[in-house]
Amino acid sequence: MTEKKTVKIATIGGGSSYTPELVEGFIKRYQELPLGELWLVDVPEGKEKLEIVGDLAKRMFEKAGLPVEVHLTLNRREALKDADFVTTQFRVGLLDARAKDERIPLKHGVLGQETNGPGGLFKGLRTIPVILDIVKDMEELCPEAWLVNFTNPAGMVTEAVLRHSDFRRVVGLCNVPIGMEMGIAKLLDVEHSRVRIDFAGLNHMVYGLDVYVDGVSVKDRVIELLSDPANTSFVKNVQGQGWEPEFIRSLNALTCAYHNYYYKMPEMVKKTIETAEKEGTRAEVVKRLEDELFELYKDPNLAIKPPQLEKRGGAYYSDAAVRLITSIYTDKGDIQPVNTMNKGAIASIPYESAVEVSCVITKDGPRPITMGDIPVAARGLVQQIKSFERIACEAAVEGSYDKVVLALTINPLVASDKLAKKIVDEMLEAHKAYLPQFFKTKKVAAAKG
Amino acid sequence: MTEKKTVKIATIGGGSSYTPELVEGFIKRYQELPLGELWLVDVPEGKEKLEIVGDLAKRMFEKAGLPVEVHLTLNRREALKDADFVTTQFRVGLLDARAKDERIPLKHGVLGQETNGPGGLFKGLRTIPVILDIVKDMEELCPEAWLVNFTNPAGMVTEAVLRHSDFRRVVGLCNVPIGMEMGIAKLLDVEHSRVRIDFAGLNHMVYGLDVYVDGVSVKDRVIELLSDPANTSFVKNVQGQGWEPEFIRSLNALTCAYHNYYYKMPEMVKKTIETAEKEGTRAEVVKRLEDELFELYKDPNLAIKPPQLEKRGGAYYSDAAVRLITSIYTDKGDIQPVNTMNKGAIASIPYESAVEVSCVITKDGPRPITMGDIPVAARGLVQQIKSFERIACEAAVEGSYDKVVLALTINPLVASDKLAKKIVDEMLEAHKAYLPQFFKTKKVAAAKG
Amino acid sequence: MTEKKTVKIATIGGGSSYTPELVEGFIKRYQELPLGELWLVDVPEGKEKLEIVGDLAKRMFEKAGLPVEVHLTLNRREALKDADFVTTQFRVGLLDARAKDERIPLKHGVLGQETNGPGGLFKGLRTIPVILDIVKDMEELCPEAWLVNFTNPAGMVTEAVLRHSDFRRVVGLCNVPIGMEMGIAKLLDVEHSRVRIDFAGLNHMVYGLDVYVDGVSVKDRVIELLSDPANTSFVKNVQGQGWEPEFIRSLNALTCAYHNYYYKMPEMVKKTIETAEKEGTRAEVVKRLEDELFELYKDPNLAIKPPQLEKRGGAYYSDAAVRLITSIYTDKGDIQPVNTMNKGAIASIPYESAVEVSCVITKDGPRPITMGDIPVAARGLVQQIKSFERIACEAAVEGSYDKVVLALTINPLVASDKLAKKIVDEMLEAHKAYLPQFFKTKKVAAAKG
Amino acid sequence: MTEKKTVKIATIGGGSSYTPELVEGFIKRYQELPLGELWLVDVPEGKEKLEIVGDLAKRMFEKAGLPVEVHLTLNRREALKDADFVTTQFRVGLLDARAKDERIPLKHGVLGQETNGPGGLFKGLRTIPVILDIVKDMEELCPEAWLVNFTNPAGMVTEAVLRHSDFRRVVGLCNVPIGMEMGIAKLLDVEHSRVRIDFAGLNHMVYGLDVYVDGVSVKDRVIELLSDPANTSFVKNVQGQGWEPEFIRSLNALTCAYHNYYYKMPEMVKKTIETAEKEGTRAEVVKRLEDELFELYKDPNLAIKPPQLEKRGGAYYSDAAVRLITSIYTDKGDIQPVNTMNKGAIASIPYESAVEVSCVITKDGPRPITMGDIPVAARGLVQQIKSFERIACEAAVEGSYDKVVLALTINPLVASDKLAKKIVDEMLEAHKAYLPQFFKTKKVAAAKG
């Protein structure tokens, strides 16, 4: 890599509406990261979008005056060949599948959401075989490349690569931690760059063990502010309602927005059902937003990321990805929160499991900062979700119907074997086209019969 | 102890309706355990019952022709002085408190039960200061004695002694494991004595990792039988509904009846509410049973344990206690499931925590058999309940309102900080008389205001 | 196994001089362990001895009036077929190899001994491939049988099976712990059966964490007695010289005789060299003893174990083996110290490694009693020997010359890469005939050149 | 600290010959670290040297044109008051004590050296009570200050603070890691700043798990180079002789110079004895060097660090200290190897123990980078030295003669209880004036009698 003049990046799911943000990130950091070729890959169903967004990408680089070749292809292997970095932002089954992930659980009174509960499970079941397939191609075509995954559920996907392949150059990425930092910056009215959080936990279940401004801990003040019900959580599309002061004070750690699902479970289920009735599920909302975005993207005069994209959610995601790639490429040594193998960084989470943790980013990849113990109060939930993820990974790889039921039963959002089975049966049927591993043998079919 | 001719045992809560079973146990094992003095201790409110049950105990020993002195006293220190064993079966606040533990959560749609959820928490908060007080007396008056606790929540109480005192001669005891063995024996139609289970987990959350008949594993067959919805769980007062075959097969471990609360949560909540409406809560039912029992006990012609006691629930409890005491006294080396310090017996539960595990029983106390890892699927829930117990213990010892709210928020049966606070406030008020540690300072009162 | 009327046992290395003790053990425990067939297996070089000892065995059973068939064979697979237990007591390269293990290191000023240092390493390198071969046969021919290994170095051999095969029905056995118990019994002048020690450590590096008479700890008294230089160590052929009182008091654990090598290293090396000069090495002494024994065994009138065998060393070994087999067969549940997988029984030794630990013996094999932490002072040495064993196992399996040098360098008895290499080169050459794995490829040969 | 204009630093042992290097470091980094006051503290015996070196320091700052106040004092508390950083470089008993640490063991054929074996032990016993006393003062007088210790044995001293005080703002510092980096840089002929090593282990027993140039691993090449006997170890005063290629290849980690003591033990003992005979021990050599240095320092025209200081050994030490202080002060986030609490950074070393590990340096102190497992071959030795350190710390704090004997017995350089006791008795007597904790009570005296 060091001898090469320019960098080759392959983006799987390149036809995504997020791509312009990614491109903007590449433009912004071009001086540090001399991108030579950007390969946008997609599946045949996504060809039209790929072309729209690919053309916009070309216009953006051109307007920026940068000599970046944009390649559009349906041939993944061609894109992977000799890549330096591979980013994954694909969605198996597209937004229609997400809509089902959200709708079906709600019918059973269970939270419908794309990264937690039944929705997260089934998104994982559809995604994991594909990611493992990509990894297999990478081992052959670009073994030295880094895989930067921001396909959700990012924690489960990273776990799957770590436990079910020998490939180790993988990083899972999420915008939740950066969102927490920005939320705290806003709360304290300081610049984002001055805020640093000690992140430790799992993807979408990350805690802030300490928080610093200019390197000095301000945790006590932040916890005090968070005890004031007026100060609510931070990520746009999962708004919290403020914690009870006693709870947050004695938990004594920062939470992320997704913690609402577990520490305000009945309230969140109720709210999600109401919202779905009023506005449709998030997938349905996003679908409308996406249609609008692609209309904009088609405009041949557009050569920047349109501001409307920010409403889409997932802000900073692509920017975080480019920041990460740049730090790896330049061996920068800055601290970023990513999903990587634990190796003891967080006590009481298995050594080999994926965790979301503050890491020093080097050319050799992310190196977790040792966080030690997380609060006693947080250990059980984190283990429970990790167990859920591990069994979900096994289910995905083995095509085991029994394990899907087990995974969902032990998920705190379901907590019932009977209910789990009902939901699993309905969702397996709904996603049949994207879950071939569960429909191979008569035996499985019989077991479900 | 070895030089003494006879054994002195002090039973705190001696006026309990269970005492005749305990006495029956002492009579049955008299040849191995030469009981000299049985001191039944109770609080002033329990004086009448103490006398009724104490007189029955005297008649029972007399009829058996055994020279056992029965002492009835309200002076605990007198009873503890030079005791060889101390058993605890008291109930702070009596059955009225239990009725509140069961009723109040139900109003909020949360399971009301005396060892799980809010009920278990508040029973713990009332009991822990008393048990720590007993332990302090024991350190002074009978430091070589063993404390055999079967006051619920037995796991949390054992945790409190292990974490908040220096006393180590404590064993927590429960009838759930023995009930599981008897259930399996019945299922397989073999004698109980031929069945052995590898128990590992927490009190009221214990798993059977393997099961043997005559030392040969029959786990596969048992799991198969349990996959048949016809074969339901085993402990009398917490009847299960049979597991989904996929769930139990992939969990691949035996469950106890209390697992229904976590793996059939919505169903169990619904059922408990219905039962409470129809028959009253368990405390209310038990109260009627107890009244009948004490009427029987008064009969001066009664000199045996009346068969009606078995309906009371908690069968085998006292028998298990005498079996345990006898094995300690005789250094027997048989295997019994008890609550004791983990020390690595169960991987992924903290070293210093109380676990329920198969132990070899020696004069030096229970020695856990190394169980290694429990199934991945079980690890999270076990950690979550252990975290709940640990924070509850701290709350009880410190009188920390914040920690009570935290403990209940992270309990899977509540999973909401808002709901937790509401229930805590109502229960603190209801149990005020037995929770002095929470009503000491203005600051706490204000915090709750 | 339960349906079979009688038990079939195969003894690899059946021509050993120990066999009469084994036979005596079978006779003594016949009521509990209904032995039907005893297959004594040996290699062609051992045929003569096999016949001598086999004939004696037949006479012994006959005299005892027991219907046990004794089979003598050079065909291991025939012996293994449907066996219930397999015992291994073979010696690759016979006593000549042992003599080299003892002699060569002494030339370099390093302890020469058959289970520690260079001698233990090379005995392991010769033995491990054979034991793994036996295990492979067992998986095919008697997968339900238990392998009871008492071939030294028993800890390393058990480690090899646990780490380099999938076979789990293996137990390593040693007479050191039983010797310690008998030594303590003698020291305290009580019967052996009343003494119990909490054993924890590695084979030939086992500590007694506590010691009980009739279940009551007498550790303080024993440590006090051991602080008296008059009271020395216990195993016959490795006599200690008494510990410095300060050392044993602050170590606060019982040691075994082999600890002398590590806690009296210079003295032991000196003594071993002197003894070798005066009396010859142990192998040379044993060889003379064995010749005498076989002369006795030939006597057609001899039908009991001759008392002279006890001088041979390794007393109780075979008796311990039969005791273990009987407890497994009858699911007895008594406590015996054996080598088995740690699984957390001893904190700070790897989960998957072989440890020597007090176990409850069941039909399902040995179940370690949880010992928790060993003394801080002992942790390093135990880890160091375990690391030595693990690397030795890898060297044996891979035929890696580099790893042999590494293993010996980190062994505390050598502690020099240069010295290690010199000794390794000489010993590899000396044992060439029994170390084919190191003489396969040109590359290895070149590396050594 | 943030509001203060300038930084106050107190240097305990300020009269050391190293101080000019420290001053040079402060001058070099003045732009980043605005030093206002430097307090040089020493004991009455060191008053003369303190004044000589203090005057030189003043001249150096003056020549550099920097407004730094230099205070010379024998009153430690005055110096500590409101300090921002405290550095410790004192030597209890001065070089005379070191000479004894080196000489006495040699008489018994044991390595004499000031940080390993008996010498390291006794230096620790003398130093630990003083450092704990300093820490007590700091808790009162400057609780927010960081203690940067480079008094040897730095690992043991850090362990003592972590285990025997509640003070956590402590960092142990050593020049060995930086020396390894510079050695590798020289070996590869690249600039030092391009080399980064993953350090993991203990002080004076640190391994390099990987090594990078510009972020790219060059470990294989380095190991290959180190297998060439021509390429020897790197720290000036402990020259190695090159590793056997087999050893270093299969260890597969970089070693430090002090590893020679454990992996070339007989050779190093021999060489140390020879050198002591020829040139005197290191203390004796250093004493001559120091005398020369102080003659130079007295020269009122000298206003720079004289180049002769580099011969003194301990090069980069003070520079490393200033680099560390600067990174803490500026929250720099660069990577430096220091001694700090493990917290899981290195698997298989206790959580609470001091380790030497690559850390990210923040205003909140060093944050270890998670290293995971160290090579199997290294685990035992590391544990053994850590156990030695822990028991030495307890001995120092408790004044326990028994534990001194235990610590030395388990040290691999001694490995004999008898020899340990002999050496301990002689060294206790020799250092009596500086070991008051061992000469308090009759009981201890009697025990030694």
Give the SSE map.
Four copies of one chain form a homotetramer.
Chain A: E1 7-12, H1 19-28, E2 35-41, H2 47-63, E3 69-73, H3 76-80, E4 85-88, H4 94-107, H5 117-141, E5 146-149, H6 154-164, E6 170-172, H7 176-188, E7 195-202, E8 205-213, E9 216-217, H8 219-227, H9 245-251, H10 260-263, H11 265-279, H12 282-298, H13 317-330, E10 335-341, E11 354-362, E12 365-368, H14 376-398, H15 401-410, H16 417-430, H17 442-448
Parallel strand pairs in A: 1-2, 1-4, 2-3, 4-5, 5-6
Antiparallel strand pairs in A: 7-8, 7-11, 8-9, 10-11, 11-12
Helix pairs in contact in A: 1-2, 1-13, 4-5, 4-12, 4-16, 5-6, 5-14, 6-14, 8-9, 14-15, 15-16
Description:
The structure is a homotetramer of 449-residue chains. Chain A is of the alpha/beta class and 449 residues long. Among the domains of chain A are: 7-172, NAD(P)-binding Rossmann-like Domain (Rossmann fold, 3-Layer(aba) Sandwich); 380-448. Chain A has 17 helices and 12 strands. In chain A, helix 2 (47-63) links the parallel strand 2 (35-41) and strand 3 (69-73). In chain A, helix 1 (19-28) runs parallel beside helix 2 (47-63) and helix 8 (219-227) runs antiparallel to helix 9. In chain A, 60% of the residues are buried. Chains in contact: A-B, A-D, B-C, C-D. At the C-D interface, helix 9, helix 11, helix 14, helix 15 and helix 16 of C face helix 9, helix 11, helix 14, helix 15 and helix 16 of D.
